Structures are given as C-alpha cells and as structure tokens.
Amino acid sequence: MSQDNKALFIIFGGTGDLAKRKLYPSLFRLFRKGNINKHFAVIGTARREWSDDYFREIVAESIETLHPTKQEINDFTSHFYYQSHNVNDTEEYQVLGTLANRLDEEYQLDGNRLFYLAMAPRFFGTISKHIKSEQIMTETGFSRLIIEKPFGTDYQTAEQLNHEIGAAFKEEQIFRIDHYLGKEMVQNISAVRFGNNIFESLWNHKYIESVQITLAESLGVEERGGYYDQSGALKDMVQNHILQVVSLLAMEPPTIFSEEAIRTEKINALKSVRIYDEQAVKESVVRGQYGQGSLGDHSFSSYRDEPGVEENSQTETFVAAKFMIDNFRWAGVPFYVRTGKRLTEKGTRINIVFKSTPINVFREENDTNTNLPENILTIYIQPTEGFSLTLNGKEIGDGFNIDPVKLDYRHSQENLDNSPEAYEKLILDCLKGDATNFTHWDEVATSWKIVDIIRHTWDKETEQIPNYPAGSMGPKCAFDLLEKEGHKWVWEPDTWYKNKGQLKD
Ligand code: NAD
C-alpha cells in the first residue's frame, strides 16, 4: 500500500529544463501511484511572470509522454501554483512564505516542506539563507533541501557552499542529488555483493584482477556547450557519479543495510582511495577531447565546433584513470574508470575481472601459454539493465578445447517500463527522510580532494588535443593506460564497428 505523503514542494527554477524534463514527470508518477495524493501542493518559482493557469499548462505538457487521462491531468495540475520570484530579492520571499502558509492550511500539509533548488549553484547560498531568515522553514513539520550537482567546482568552493547552506539547514536536512544513485542497477551493486556469498567471498585482491567502470555517452555536448566547457568530464562525471560507483563497489559490508551504516562504509572506502601527487597523476590519469569523426553513415563535428565552446578549448570530454584503494581488501587491485562524450555507444557498465586459474591444465604439453580467459562479472547499468558472468566451458565435440560462455540476464522491457525512474525514487526517498541514496558532505569533500590534484596537474600543461575522433572509444592513451600493466578494457564496442568497416582504426 502506498502512503499519501504530505508535503509542499517549493521548486526554485520551476520554469527550467530540469523541472520540466524530470521533476514534474516524476511527481506525476508518484501521484499516479498514490505516493502523493490529496495532501500535496507544488509552488514553482522563477523570474518569469507566469499565471497559475499557464504554469499548469506547462506541467500538463511535461507529462504528455506518460499518457495521462484528462481527469488525471486536471487532478494533478490543480495542485500546482506559480510565484514569480527573483531569488536575490528579500521581499519576494515574504510573498512566497505567505503563499506557502496558505497552501499548507488548504491541503493540510502539517508544515512539511521540501525545497528543490533546480537552479545554478551560485544561487544555492542566497536561497538557503532567505528560506531561513524569512521563516519559510516551519517549526512543525520537516524542512528538507534537495540540491543539484555540481556541488562546488573544487574542494574550497564546495566547502564554502556547504558552509552557506549549513547556516540554514542541518546536514540531515540536506539531500544532495546524484541521480546515478537512483538507478536500479547501481542500487543492485549492493544486492549482488551482499546477497551472494559466491561473489562477496571472492570480492578482494586475492581473486580480483581489476575492476573496470565505463560511463560512455554517444552524444556530444548538445546545447550544454557553454556549461560543459567550464566543467569538463573530470568535474562533470568523475568527482560525483564515478567515485560514487567506486565507493559502492569497494566498501566493506555494512553491519545492517541502514543509511548510517552504508554511509560510514562508503566514506571509509572513499578515504582509502589513494590521493596522487603530480607524478602519479601523469602516470595514472589521461584525458581527451573529441575531434571530427564518423561512425557508419553519421559524421560528427569536433568538440571545438560545438555551440558555446571556445575555439581553442582545452576542456576534456574524456577521462580515463586508474584509482588505487589502499586498504586490506583492495591492495594492488586497479580500479580503471573511463567516461567520455561522443564515444561509440552509450553505455554504463561495470566489469569485475577475476584472476585466471593458476595454471591452464588443458594446454598442449609444450605450450607456454598458461592463461585461460578470465571470469568476468558484468553489471549493466544502462541502457540495458542486468548481469552477465563469463565461465570457461568445454567446446562441444572432439578434443578438449575451452570455450568461454556467457550467462546473461537482462531485465525485460516490460520490467524496465514499470520500474520507477531515478528522480522519482529519489524524491520519494527524500519525502520519507531516507538519505541513503544521496551524497553526504563527507563524501563530496573526499571526492573533491581526490579530483583536485588531477585538475591542478592538468592546468599546468597543455594537451595535444583533439586526440580522439568522435565515434571511437577514446584516445590511444586510454588503452595504453591498461596495456602497460598487462590489462585491457573488457568492453570494446568499437571493435565491432571496426570489424564491419564502419569505424576507422
Ligand atoms: P535552466 O537554465 O533550464 O533553469 C534555470 C531556472 O532558474 C529557470 O527556471 C530560471 O528562470 C531560474 N532563474 C535563473 N535566475 C533566477 C533568479 N535570479 N531568480 C529566480 N529564478 C531564476 O537550468 P536546468 O537545466 O533546469 O538546471 C538546473 C540545475 O540542475 C543546475 O544546477 C544544473 O546543473 C542541474 N542539473 C540539470 C540537469 C538537466 O538535465 N537539465 C541535469 C543534472 C543537473
């Protein structure tokens, strides 16, 4: 039975892209399922002068793809109110506060408030300050703050931002969104590890050769060139999503699956990630930027030709790194990560590469090759979701040839269609006060410390870029990074296209 959670949502940036593409559809899904029903109201605020009616039309448009009935549209959008508001103007907060109190009474919301900052981070401090000083937080119910990435641009700015927000909200009231943590298969990492003895008992340096994490995007920067050019892949993807996935893979088992126990272990894992010096950065982290390229019949322009991007931009659109985790469990096991734009295929996947058997007993007598293919556990996060495990079996027929087979499980399309979207899950978690799948300040701080030294090292040097053609799986240095240690990337979608002559070598 779903529960009708009571809350007033105040969405700052209510006319923005994120609100329309993600937040309103997610609220509608929660409404359909009865997680919010009679006792909720939404105030959208932004600078534009919109009426409630116009706002409701926009909200209705944003949920069109979910095929609501007319009745559903009316019922849902009747809970939406619009308040034009410049976040720098103190008096306008008082108007907002009055509207909030009126809706609280009308919908019997018990003073529960969820403030969603779907705006540029430079506004986070001033909004938080005003929410407190103009008494828009309530004494009776909960007041929670959801904020979007990026949380700062380095450790120092993140600390400053945290300080500003912290003056109004306590840590347990702050919900820092990392939408990767809302993804079904990212949450499944814990199920695979802690629900299966066959994996957890092998989950350490004795049996694992390497861990590989790929977050590949096939798209370029689209309309976000201006923003992206200031950020780059390291800050946009590695500091948050990738290090979060690393912490889930590397953490010790929590004593119980609770928010506090999981958080403690994740933070411990992140604190064990080796912080490099400049020399180690040069050896262990590489970057790239895409140039023109083609894949099959499609040709793509270079990053520097994208709208909003500087013509001599040095911004990286690709990062590959080796992280080392200096603790008992992981000593010596490389965690290879890579992420980039305009890669061959869109895909997020994790490959756990197990060590080969100590010797190949099936080898020919004088054969010096003693290696059998490694067992690999793959966790597919998107676009397909599931697991696979490669095992070595005997090839059918005469002789005794070893043939790797793949046990492959993917969630069906029907299951995927019915599963909640990441934002939907995270908003519901926040309504329930469960911050397990949000990022704690200690995690943000530790991640910035890992990433800052990489940025500082790169800022001192210019890279020969562009260095990979759009449509490939990144620059040569990203392959060399593994090869020099006798490893290779397990996932090679580019090879398939190369073999068909659709991608240049
Ligand atoms: P957007 O530019 O589309 O929207 C920004 C909103 O802020 C608009 O509603 C605008 O009216 C409002 N605004 C700007 N200045 C204001 C002021 N002085 N007073 C009141 N309102 C003002 O941005 P977006 O893409 O929706 O992104 C919002 C946040 O979410 C950003 O922090 C972004 O990094 C983050 N984010 C966005 C996405 C996405 O898919 N769009 C994904 C992840 C994170």
Task: Explain what you see.
It is built from 16 helices and 18 strands. The protein is globular and about 85 Å long. The strands form 4 sheets. Strands 8-12-13-7-14-15-16-17 form an 8-stranded mixed beta sheet, with helices on both faces. Strands 3-2-1-4-5-6 form a 6-stranded parallel beta sheet. It has 505 residues and is α/β, with parallel strands linked by helices. Helix 1 (17-32) packs across helix 13 (422-432), helix 9 (225-250) packs across helix 10 and helix 9 packs across helix 14. The protein folds into 2 domains: 7-148, NAD(P)-binding Rossmann-like Domain (Rossmann fold, 3-Layer(aba) Sandwich); 181-351 and 423-500, Dihydrodipicolinate Reductase, domain 2. Helices cover 37% and strands 20% of the residues. Residues 13-19, 46-48, 85-88, 118-121, 148-149 line the site of nicotinamide-adenine-dinucleotide. NADP(+) binds at residues 13-20, 47, 149. Belongs to the glucose-6-phosphate dehydrogenase family. It catalyses: D-glucose 6-phosphate + NADP(+) = 6-phospho-D-glucono-1,5-lactone + NADPH + H(+). Residues 10-188 form the Glucose-6-phosphate dehydrogenase NAD-binding domain.
